[in-house]
Specification:
Layout (H helix, E strand, L loop, with lengths): L1 H13 L1 H29 L1 H8 L5 E4 L8 H4 L4 E8 L4 E2 L26 E5 L9 E4 L2 H6 L6 E5 L21 E11 L13 E3 L1 H6 L1 H5 L7 E7 L6 H12 L5 E4 H54 L5 H30 L6 H4 L11 H29 L10 H8 L4 H11 L11 H29 L24 H9 L12 E6 L2 E8 L11 E4 L7 E4 L1 H7 L6 E4 L6 E9 L13 E4 L3
Parallel strand pairs: 5-7, 12-17, 14-16
Antiparallel strand pairs: 1-9, 1-10, 2-9, 3-6, 4-7, 5-8, 6-7, 11-12, 13-16, 14-17, 15-16
């Protein structure tokens, strides 16, 4: 050990620049790989950790019925907690009305306490008794430039506008202006940002209590819906559906399974993001093997050549191997330690994508399982590579062997290739000899892997960009939509207005879609009618089968089909209308996005189902 330590000290003094470069390479590789691995693990668990901490609602119940009596639902034995919210809108003064997310005003103080108790990212939770306090979601300060301590002005609709007020209509609200202060930035499964969102304002329950006529209308005929937490979690949803239908006499109330509705898609996306991060980490690891491996091999080759002098006085091959490996191993330990520090600092930018919108503890995070394994593995890999290189160099001795000629370089020379081509070919394919010898196959493999990786990245980027720029790729073939009437009542003669729109030369497709909710087993399904106006059919994208042609046929959206385990040709039973009906699935395809569904959930059917 003494001679090994002495040699390591001497070698470190002579080649400290090479060792410092090796340590930096190890640090960079360790930080990159471990940041990606820890970020992938953190992102994949973000939703589950948020769900576990925030007392989330099990279901969202949406009767959309004026004067609905929620006290009977609160009394159901399976209900642990229930909080209501008003389907009402208001305006943030000073900002464009489009895309404003002013949230649904909470209807009682149970929210934030017994259900949907959010994590507080900054500031504090609002006081439920003060109408002049609001919380916001995490994206709001970034998009609007207003954070904790700043003020906003809310303008409410007049009682005559009430629940029907829509900020995106361009019609200004005519109610009072209320100055509110942002007191906190919060996050829970219900109070979180979605991709493409611009942040949301979360008002106090006192807003609805003090300005009920403005938000619910002069006759108080607005909708109050609810978030419900069940004692048995998802397992209690079938019982809740049955009890809800029994108590209300309605089988068409839309009941969202929040974990399935939000959690399943989020988990798929975050798992994909985690896989991308892991792929990046593995690519960085492969690049590190080639880059650091060549550096180690070259360093060991030079060190073994010097150690040959000590073989004569009696240094054994084992001692020579240990002496050659000591300095690179110590440099790798220092580099790995620096890399761990870098990974900890970089963790503040993790996780990425959708997972970043659900992370309950943003900022620096130390995953000691990943970091500990990485800290041990990096020096051991360098040690193993050094040992293999040293053993190979000692076994080969210092005898000069003829340089291995490349077959391709020889063929190029015989073919009379230009001198630059010949020299370039020899540099790329011939390892050389002596101290200048370098392995060429790892370098070639690394170059091939790098080119393939770059091509794969550009191909993937082009696919994502194309899908984002062309919504028709995922079935959204319309550019505009409008809601006319509700609860089966139209405000006036709709037919002439629709025919006038269809007569426009700029309109290529128009669908008079009636929207309702049906139930099939434990799945709530938003339904749309296919009813073209003026012979101008809206394009419908199918993934299997054909469009329904008769009253007994439907087209199912992919996610709903998966939930029902239904395929083309299957027969399913629907309830929610006057009588249960059995319908045949003629095709699978996308439906329009609506208030209660995404493009991949719901069903379409001809008028008269």
């Amino acid at each position: 050990m003494r001679i090994i330590a002495a040699w390591a000290r001497l070698d470190g003094q002579r080649r400290w620049r090479s060792l410092a470069a090796l340590a930096l390479l190890v640090a960079l590789a360790t930080a990159t790989v471990l940041t990606a691995a820890a970020g992938a693990r953190r992102g994949q668990t973000a939703f589950d950790r948020l769900w576990a901490r925030t007392l989330p609602a099990t279901v969202t119940a949406l009767p959309n019925q004026p004067g609905f009596n929620w006290s009977r639902i609160r009394a159901l034995p399976e209900v642990s907690s229930l909080t209501t919210f008003a389907v009402a809108r208001y305006l943030l003064v000073g900002y464009p009305p489009t895309d404003q997310n002013t949230g649904f005003p909470p209807g009682d103080s149970q929210v934030f306490r017994t259900i949907e108790r959010p994590v507080v990212l900054q500031g504090r939770l609002l006081d439920p008794g003060r109408a002049d306090e609001v919380d916001v979601t995490a994206l709001f300060p970034t998009i609007y430039g207003k954070g904790v301590g700043d003020t906003l002005t809310l303008q409410l609709p007049s009682p005559q506008q009430g629940q029907n007020y829509d900020p995106s209509s361009g019609q200004p609200p005519r109610g009072p202006k209320i100055r509110v202060r942002i007191v906190g930035v919060v996050r829970s499964p219900w109070f979180s940002d979605a991709p493409g969102a611009e942040g949301a304002v979360i008002p106090s329950p006192a807003l609805l209590a003090h300005y009920r006529a403005n938000l619910m209308g002069v006759h108080g005929d607005g909708y109050i819906n609810a978030l419900v937490r069940l004692k048995g979690g998802e397992a209690a949803i079938p019982r809740f559906r049955a009890d809800l239908a029994r108590v209300t006499g309605r089988s068409d109330i839309d009941v969202w399974d929040n974990l399935a509705l939000y959690g399943d898609p989020v988990r798929r996306v975050t798992s994909y993001e985690a896989a991308c991060l892991l792929a990046f980490g593995l690519a960085a690891l492969a690049a590190a093997f080639f880059l650091i491996g060549q550096s180690v091999a070259r360093y060991i080759s030079a060190t073994v050549a010097d150690l040959q002098i000590l073989r004569a006085p009696g240094m054994t091959p084992r001692q020579a191997t240990a002496a050659a490996c000591a300095a690179p191993f110590l440099a790798a330990v220092a580099g790995a330690t620096l890399g761990i520090a870098g990974a900890i600092v970089a963790s503040q930018w993790m996780p990425i994508g959708v997972a970043s919108m659900l992370e309950p503890q943003p900022g620096i995070s130390v995953d000691w399982l990943i970091l500990g394994v990485g800290w041990a593995a990096a020096p051991l890999l360098v040690l193993a590579g050094s040992a293999v290189a040293a053993a190979a160099a000692l076994a080969a001795g210092r005898a000069q062997r003829p340089a291995r000629r490349s077959v391709f370089a020889a063929a190029a020379a015989r073919a009379g290739a230009p001198v630059p081509v010949l020299i370039g070919t020899r540099f790329a394919l011939e390892p050389g000899r002596g101290r200048s010898a370098l392995p060429v196959r790892p370098a070639l493999m690394g170059a091939v892997a790098g080119v393939l990786g770059v091509l794969a990245a550009f191909t993937f980027s082009a696919g994502v960009t194309d899908a984002a720029a062309h919504p028709a790729r995922f079935g959204q073939t319309n550019q505009l939509d409008s809601f006319i009437g509700e609860n089966g009542q139209d405000p006036g003669p709709v037919g002439p207005a629709l025919r006038a729109v269809a007569a426009s030369r700029d309109v290529t497709g128009l669908d008079d879609a009636l929207i309702a909710v049906a139930q099939s087993g434990q799945v709530s399904i938003s339904t749309y009618t296919y009813d073209p106006v003026g012979g101008k059919r809206l394009p419908i994208v199918l993934t299997a089968g054909r469009l329904p042609t008769g009253p007994g046929e439907i087209a199912l959206a992919p996610t709903t089909a998966r939930q029902l385990h239904a395929t083309t040709g299957a027969t399913i039973r629907l309830t929610g209308g006057a009588h249960p009906v059995a319908v045949r699935v003629s095709g699978l395809g996308f439906v329009p996005e609506g208030p209660h569904n995404d493009y991949d959930s719901g069903l379409g059917h001809p008028r008269g189902l």
